[in-house]
């Protein structure tokens, strides 16, 4: 079936128009829809109303000359060049030159006009106009690809690259909207760049029947997923439904869209990684997408894939640098802490050891034991300091494996409380209170012990005048909550915000030894359990630290009663 071209004849001679119509309708190679006008005013009105593929224009018209009308059409109507063939009854070369200079495609003399000559002239005009339009389109496409590639090399701002690309693609395709849609790991994804303001998230689509598996037809509601676009390298035409706004949904979910995938290289894997989609949306009337449109979108998607991978590589590099910076800061803090916290106990150890070596004969057994006790106490403190720093390093930088097992919390915490009572001394009274159902709990024994020991030792240490330290264990249906409450020095409000960070301490600790690692260790261990930790305190009144832990572990392990 031949394409139908719209042709306009502007000539005041009805007989001549009849001849041209008869000649053209007999063309075996081209079909025409022919419009006629007998004056310049009517011809101009038809040009404004109906897009024409070719215009046959008589040089002599009753209301103005053909040249004047041609100039007026060029100024007022033609955004792109429409081929014009000038017709005249005189074979004047001067007129021919004027016509061709103004941009007319051809010039024919009426008395020499035959059927074959007119048919060939019109067909050539259509062909030449198509070639010229194709050349312009190709040049624009090449310019867009080159510009996008240049931006990728010059800019590291992915958002800017994406937004500029969609704006230029929209202008080139002359469509209503162009979008970049990014898939998310666990959700439908979102629009990350749009040639107009994004109004909502693409969530569902009506697939135009494409014979994919025979189960989806036009009108079916389906989720946009990676699988929909990764089965074939051929771009799909989709009807995109837009959620969260009924009026926009009704407005946009019936118009054709051209969709091509944005594929990233997959670490040597021959199957690329589908990152997202490049979507050209056309809302104003029916749009027949051309092969050139698909090719252009595919070329742009390749350039965008390069930009995306470049941005991801930059993000990875920045993350690595940030981690290296964090490690260097941590090392500096360790060195500063070690140099500061080791000096006092080492001085005490050296003094006690020196006294024992020089004056052991003059010291009775009780004094010798006291000096040995100092050495043991300070050595244990230094050993604990090293252990804590190594543990913080592991928790913050290496993220140890979480190994949950079924635990009897009542027995677990009872044993720990007894151990603390043995070392706490007579000035502190440790109270253990239990309420609710504490059965069916899964947790990591080592991490849970670290939580308890660090919180309990803090409560005792920062209660230098003694007093009561309470440990409450509250069991609920899906979680356990425990809190440790002391009557110690408390923490100033200004210091509370940063207390869960490594090496952070309250400003009122005075000479109480410590490294500021206990709460950081407890917080990291709680988070590995998928729980939460919080703190409330008032200076001079004491501190309360609350921990809540789920009975089902973050790994999805069910409690014993559920298995």
UniProtKB/TrEMBL annotation:
It is an enzyme of class 2 (transferase). It catalyses: ATP + protein L-histidine = ADP + protein N-phospho-L-histidine. Its EC number is 2.7.13.3. Residues 157-303 form the Phytochrome chromophore attachment site domain. Pfam families: GAF (PF01590), HATPase_c (PF02518), HisKA (PF00512), Response_reg (PF00072). SMART domains: GAF (SM00065), HATPase_c (SM00387), HisKA (SM00388), REC (SM00448). Residues 6-125 form the Response regulatory domain. Keywords: Kinase, Phosphoprotein, Transferase, Two-component regulatory system. The modification 4-aspartylphosphate is found at residue 58. Residues 337-553 form the Histidine kinase domain. In the N-terminal section; belongs to the phytochrome family. PANTHER family: HYBRID SIGNAL TRANSDUCTION HISTIDINE KINASE C (PTHR43547:SF2), TWO-COMPONENT HISTIDINE KINASE (PTHR43547). This is histidine kinase. It comes from Nostoc flagelliforme FACHB-838.
């Amino acid at each position: 079936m031949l394409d139908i071209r719209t042709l306009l004849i502007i000539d005041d001679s009805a007989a001549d128009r009849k001849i041209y119509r008869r000649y053209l309708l007999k063309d075996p190679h081209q079909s025409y829809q022919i419009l006629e006008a007998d004056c310049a005013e009517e011809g101009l009105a038809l040009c404004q109303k109906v897009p024409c593929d070719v215009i046959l224009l008589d040089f002599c018209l009753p209301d103005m000359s053909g040249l004047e009308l041609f100039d007026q059409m060029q100024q007022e109507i033609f955004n792109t060049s429409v081929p014009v063939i000038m017709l005249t009854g005189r074979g004047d070369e001067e007129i021919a030159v004027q016509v061709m200079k103004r941009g007319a495609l051809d010039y024919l003399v009426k008395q020499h006009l035959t059927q074959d000559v007119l048919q060939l002239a019109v067909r050539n005009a259509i062909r030449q106009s198509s070639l010229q339009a194709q050349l312009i389109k190709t040049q624009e496409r090449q310019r867009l690809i080159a510009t996008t590639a240049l931006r990728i090399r010059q800019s590291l701002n992915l958002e800017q690259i994406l937004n500029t690309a969609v704006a230029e693609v929209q202008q080139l395709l002359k469509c209503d909207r162009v979008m970049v849609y990014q898939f998310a790991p666990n959700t439908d994804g979102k629009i990350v760049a749009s040639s107009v303001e994004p109004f909502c998230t693409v969530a569902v689509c009506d697939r135009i029947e494409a014979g994919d598996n025979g189960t989806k037809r036009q009108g079916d509601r389906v989720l946009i997923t990676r699988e929909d676009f990764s089965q074939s390298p051929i771009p799909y035409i989709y009807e995109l439904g837009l959620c969260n706004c009924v009026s926009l949904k009704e407005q946009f979910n019936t118009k054709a869209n051209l969709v091509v995938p944005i594929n990233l290289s997959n670490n040597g894997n021959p199957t690329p990684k589908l990152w997202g989609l490049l979507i050209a949306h056309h809302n104003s009337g029916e749009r027949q997408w051309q092969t050139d449109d698909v090719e252009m979108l595919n070329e742009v998607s390749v350039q965008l894939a390069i930009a995306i991978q470049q941005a991801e590589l930059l993000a990875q590099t920045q993350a690595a640098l940030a981690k290296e910076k964090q490690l260097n800061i941590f090392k500096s803090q360790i060195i500063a802490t070690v140099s500061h916290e080791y000096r006092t106990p080492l001085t005490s150890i050296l003094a006690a050891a020196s006294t024992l070596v020089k004056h052991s004969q003059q010291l009775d057994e009780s004094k010798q034991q006291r000096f040995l006790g100092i050495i043991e106490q300070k050595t244990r403190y230094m050993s604990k300091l090293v252990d804590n720093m190594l543990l913080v390093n592991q928790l913050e930088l290496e993220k140890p494996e979480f190994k949950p097992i079924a635990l009897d919390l009542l027995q677990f915490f009872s044993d720990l409380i007894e151990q603390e009572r043995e070392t706490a001394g007579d000035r502190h009274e440790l109270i253990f209170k239990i309420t609710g159902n504490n059965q069916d709990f899964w947790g990591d024994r080592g991490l849970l012990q670290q939580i308890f020991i660090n919180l309990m030792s803090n409560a005792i240490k920062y209660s230098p005048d003694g007093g009561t330290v309470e440990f409450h264990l509250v069991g609920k249906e899906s979680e356990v909550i425990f809190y440790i409450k002391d009557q110690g020095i408390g923490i100033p409000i200004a210091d509370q915000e940063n207390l869960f960070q490594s090496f952070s301490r309250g400003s009122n600790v005075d000479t109480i030894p410590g490294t500021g690692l206990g709460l950081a260790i407890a917080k990291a261990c709680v988070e590995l359990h998928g729980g939460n930790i919080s703190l409330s305190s008032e200076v001079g009144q004491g501190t309360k630290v609350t921990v809540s832990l789920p009975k089902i572990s973050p790994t999805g392990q069910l409690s014993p009663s559920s298995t």
